[in-house]
Specification:
mainly alpha, A middle domain of Talin 1, I/LWEQ domain, flat
Length: 348
């Protein structure tokens, strides 16, 4: 007991550099989230950028391992050693942020956002690890510390998975693919729920507080199903739209000029609005159906889809050979929206 009491002040002193490190990393994280990159300091070379980013992420992962191991056993780390470890960690994380700042906005905001998010995740992971060590027992490696160390490793392993095709084109394609996956899932879930005679709440267990599900209005009427058929048409148009836009971005997307890069960014920005709009519509389709809410959510989704199609049509990814499907999907959106308006006219 005496030895433990004597060791406590030394342990507190040894951990002081960690508190300073945590503060420095928190300040760095704020700068990464809010800061802007430099422009035009030297010619930008994308291969050199990726190599440097990969190296800095790898070094940061190694420093996280060293830091965690230093505080994983009964032998106390000295204040001097802790300061050296903290300085090495801080240098490694600053190097990651510095390389992120190399990436100019001219290379595309979609690509920059992906790299920024990956950089921020590394900094956040290191802050979490530092906080875990500060609150962990002095003489052993805690489960939380193991998890936090693994979190830094995972964040640092993201670089190979970041889209590295033709600048912004690959980043935008990955955004579109992710949106398409979400919309596909929502569509499949609603198709499953709409199977004739099925209880859409079948996956919700009876609850003592809420009462029996039989006490609720949990089934669709025939009128509901007619309305929802057109809503499903809009959801299917969303899936087709994303699939087609993804195809033309892959086939025709270029990043040779600021205008082309900006057009790709515009497509990514508006496509990001599709999946939440699909989700909102799907949620409003469950019984008891509020027809006005369905109409409003359908109108919002239709507006987003029309905007995606318009941006696609006026961009470089849509040569004359691709204009046919743009026109067809625009008509499909209008057709389904008009049917929804007719079904819900008495609600206005």
């Amino acid at each position: 007991r005496t030895a433990v009491l004597e060791a406590a002040p030394a342990a507190m002193a040894a951990r002081e550099p960690l508190r300073e490190l945590r503060g420095a990393l928190c300040a760095l994280l704020a700068r990464v989230r809010e800061g802007e990159p430099g422009e035009g300091r030297e010619p930008f070379e994308l291969p050199r950028f990726w190599d440097a980013l990969g190296q800095t992420f790898q070094v940061t992962s190694q420093e996280a391992t060293k830091l965690s191991l230093a505080f994983s056993g009964p032998v106390l780390t000295s204040a001097e050693d802790c300061r050296k470890l903290s300085e090495d960690v801080q240098s490694a994380v600053i190097a990651v942020a510095t390389v992120y700042y190399w990436l100019p906005k001219g290379q595309g905001t979609t690509l920059r956002k992906m790299v920024r998010d990956a950089t921020a995740e590394v900094v956040e992971g290191m802050i979490q690890l530092t906080e875990t060590i500060l609150s962990a027992p002095l003489d052993r490696l805690s489960q939380e510390q193991l998890i936090s160390t693994g979190g830094v490793w995972g964040a640092c392993e993201q670089v190979p998975n970041l889209p590295r095709g033709e600048y912004n084109q690959a980043a935008v394609a990955s955004v579109l693919a992710a949106c398409l996956g979400v919309v596909k899932d929502a569509l499949e879930e609603m198709e499953h729920a709409l199977v004739e005679g099925q209880d859409p709440y079948s996956d919700i267990m009876e609850d003592e507080e809420l009462g029996f599900r039989g006490n609720r209005d949990i089934y669709w009427s025939e009128a509901d199903r007619k309305l929802l058929s057109s809503c499903m048409g809009l959801m299917k148009a969303s899936k087709a739209c994303l699939k087609k836009v993804l195809g033309v971005v892959k086939a025709h997307g270029k990043a040779d000029s600021p205008e082309q890069i900006a057009q790709l960014d515009d497509l990514a920005d508006i496509a990001n609005e599709i999946s939440p709009s699909v989700d909102e519509l799907a949620l409003s389709m469950y019984p008891p159906v509020n027809e006005l809410a369905v109409r409003l959510n359908a109108a919002k989704l239709a507006s987003v889809l029309k905007k995606v199609l318009e941006i696609t049509k006026t961009s470089h990814v849509c040569p004359p050979s691709e204009e046919g499907w743009v026109q067809f999907l625009t008509g499909a959106v209008d057709h389904n929206m008009n049917k929804i308006k007719n079904f819900t006219q008495d609600q206005l």
